[in-house]
Specification:
79 residues; mainly alpha; 0% strand
C-alpha cells in the first residue's frame, strides 16, 4: 500500500508532524515537571488539591517528556 503525502498545500510531511507533536508534548511535560502546582492550578484545581496531586502531576510530566522524546525521535528517523 502506498501512502500519498503532501497532498494538501501547506500541510506538514509526516516526519515533520511527528517531530512537532513530540516537541509539543515535551514542552507541556516540562511545564508540569518544573511547576506542578501552578500547572494544575491552570487546569482548575484549588491550591490545596493542587499541592496534594503535585506528585501525580510530576509522574505524568515525566511520562509525557519521555513519550514526546520518542515521538520526536521516530519522526527524525523517517526522513
Amino acid at each position: 500500500m502506498t501512502i500519498k503525502t503532501g497532498t494538501i498545500k501547506g500541510s506538514l510531511a509526516p516526519h515533520q508532524l511527528a517531530r512537532a507533536i513530540g516537541l509539543g508534548r515535551m514542552i507541556a511535560g516540562g511545564g508540569f515537571l518544573l511547576a506542578p502546582i501552578g500547572s494544575t492550578r491552570v487546569l482548575g484545581l484549588d491550591t490545596a488539591t493542587a499541592k496534594r496531586v503535585s506528585f501525580l502531576a510530576r509522574m505524568m510530566a515525566v511520562r509525557d517528556v519521555v513519550i514526546g522524546a520518542g515521538t520526536a525521535a521516530a519522526g527524525r528517523g523517517a526522513e
